[in-house]
Amino acid sequence: MEIIDAHMKSEGISRRDAIKLFGTGGAAMLLASGATTQASASSSAAKAKIVIIGGGLAGMSTAARLTNSLDNPDITVIEPGDIATSYQPGQTLVGAGIWDVSEVVYKTDDFVPDGVTIIKEKAVEFDPKNNMVKTSGGKTVKYDYMVIAAGLKLDYARIEGLGIEGTITSTGDHSPVSKVIGKNGIASIYFQKGSADTWTQMQKFIAEAKSGKKVKGIFTHPNTPIKCGGAPKKIMYLTDARLREAGARENAELTFYPNGSKMFGVKEYHDAIVNQFEARDMKWNYRHNLVAVDPVKKIATFNRHWKEKGEWDPDLEEYSIVPRSEKVEKEFDFIHITPPMIAPEEIADSPVGSGKGWVPVHKETLQHVKYPNVFALGDIAAVPMGKTGGSARKQYKVVVDNIISMMEGKEPTAKYGGYTVCPLITSIGTVMLAEFDWSKKPTPSFPLDPTQERYIWWLLKVYALKPMTQYGMLSGRA
């Protein structure tokens, strides 16, 4: 933290200015001042029964801020998971052997705000017309306002050949998936056990390369929205770094296979990543969606897709565009799978869901498009922005402010500006802090070139963001 502070000063940024730039709550952890902060929202005497679906980072932070902001809070959180608040961003570091998995596991009970009721069951039926939710244990819970923060599900079953059925969450029981993910060079950081097994498989891959064998590493990005869009590249950068550390990089071919046609949705960050890939001799092939894996033969099958110019249409005076695709097979010694991701089935198929599963909300107020007393945030919300903790950090304050406004008989005027942040790990010791909003342009919090890899952002990622989440967001203050 002293190094971060010193670097800020060398860039002409005082500690006072850094605190302002980083925002309430995070600055104390970031700059190691040891100071505590108070909730910024004014206390309200308004009363209403609020139900929050999901007790992960987004849901529990919302509960905490509501508790801080209301004189007489009546809040119920419906969450079945004992470790729902676990620090998922740290799973990338676990996958590269930098952290142990125990360092990212938090108990949900440790972060339930005083006075909040928690029901350790799953919400399985939604009746928004009558303001009711039913739980897996048969309880009927009524509400005046409902906040949906149920996260998303990992759908490894969509990939043929793995023999996986059903979906899982990042935390909880992963035994069905762990029978195949974490063996035979197959890895995935997207669930807790998988992140630990990724490091085991990566070490075997590095050992093969160090022995002189020519090896191939594959990294995928699916055709669905995913949490932390930068993570598939982060684990690839870290694999590259570990290979170089072992003196075995020249024996490994590393290739990224994203379904899309860009490295990043913001041009400046896309260009920076391409330059980084080229400098590290990391390869990529766009428009490849992983559809099957043969764990025994170690073959990954992709749907390669593109568009071609078709026949001329004399009425429209333009050529038709014809979609094309083909199956291509790629051998691997190590593969990191980013699974397809979906909204929880019980929400997707309910009145509060949508055709695509995600909860439809107005992107700025985060209010449901059909039910004014329902809000959604985090991974489950159908917002055209990254599904990251950085997004949730801005969103939960908007949700709280708008609910309290409505409780007081006012219009919901607080707006989410689309801010999100991706601390893109580019090696062991450097991070590119990619910040942006609806403008799809870099929006750095500090007057530093955001396309540059920096050691101070590595310190931020490894040492500051976890306590900022634990003691900032989950207390409703950051």
What's a quick, concise take on this entry?
Residues 49-162 form the FAD/NAD(P)-binding domain. One of its GO terms (molecular function) is sulfide:quinone oxidoreductase activity. By secondary structure, this protein is of the alpha/beta class.
Describe the structure.
The protein is α/β, with parallel strands linked by helices and 478 residues long. The protein folds into three domains: 1-33 and 421-478, no CATH class; 38-152 and 343-418, FAD/NAD(P)-binding domain; 154-341, FAD/NAD(P)-binding domain, CATH 3.50.50. Helix content is 27%, strand content 23%. It contains twelve helices and 20 strands. It has helices at 2-10, 15-22, 26-30, 57-69, 91-95, 175-178, 192-210, 231-245, 267-279, 345-348, 389-407, 455-471, and strands spanning 49-53, 74-78, 117-119, 123-127, 132-135, 140-142, 145-148, 153-154, 186-187, 215-221, 252-258, 283-284, 288-294, 299-313, 318-331, 334-336, 341-342, 374-376, 420-427, 430-436. The strands form six sheets. Strands 3-2-1-7-18 form a five-stranded parallel β-sheet, covered by helices on one side. Strand 19 (420-427) and strand 20 form a beta hairpin. Helix 4 runs parallel beside helix 11. It starts with a helix and ends in a 7-residue tail after the last helix.
Topology:
Elements lengths: L1 H9 L4 H8 L3 H5 L18 E5 L3 H13 L4 E5 L12 H5 L21 E3 L3 E5 L4 E4 L4 E3 L2 E4 L4 E2 L20 H4 L7 E2 L4 H19 L4 E7 L9 H15 L6 E7 L8 H13 L3 E2 L3 E7 L4 E15 L4 E14 L2 E3 L4 E2 L2 H4 L25 E3 L12 H19 L12 E8 L2 E7 L18 H17 L7
Parallel strand pairs: 1-2, 1-7, 2-3, 7-18, 9-16, 10-11, 10-16, 11-12
Antiparallel strand pairs: 4-5, 5-6, 8-17, 13-14, 14-15, 19-20
Helix pairs in contact: 4-11
Protein name: NAD(P)/FAD-dependent oxidoreductase
InterPro entries: FAD/NAD-bd_sf, FAD/NAD-binding_dom, Sulphide_quinone_reductase, TAT_signal
Pfam families: Pyr_redox_2 (PF07992)
